[in-house]
Automatic annotation (TrEMBL):
This is YkgJ family cysteine cluster protein. It comes from the Bacteria. It comes from Shewanella denitrificans (strain OS217 / ATCC BAA-1090 / DSM 15013). The lineage of its organism: Bacteria, Pseudomonadati, Pseudomonadota, Gammaproteobacteria, Alteromonadales. InterPro entries: Puta_zinc/iron-chelating_dom, UPF0153_domain.
Length: 83
């Protein structure tokens, strides 16, 4: 599965404990990453400062569903189940 351009669920729903440029302590679940622009595109995509955890994420129907709204719900559910 390919990422849905402009979804951004993986940059909003989960917590990220790695430092992110502009967010040295990472980000809590449910908070938009500071690197996510208004079109829900990562401004550091493909750059070395992008956290490894972000680069390792692979879109999957079980995590992303078939809509952006499903992705937010599924990732939020996974986050709450594993925190």
């Amino acid at each position: 599965m390919e990422c849905r351009l402009g979804c951004g669920a993986c940059c909003i729903a989960p917590s990220i404990t790695s430092p992110i440029p502009g967010m040295p302590d990472g980000k809590p679940a449910g908070e938009r990453c500071i690197q996510l622009n208004t079109d829900n595109l990562c401004m550091i995509f493909g750059k070395p400062e992008r956290p490894a955890v972000c680069g390792e994420f692979t879109a999957n129907i079980d995590v992303c569903g078939s809509t952006n709204e499903q992705a937010i719900w599924l990732i939020t559910d996974l986050e709450s189940s594993t925190s």
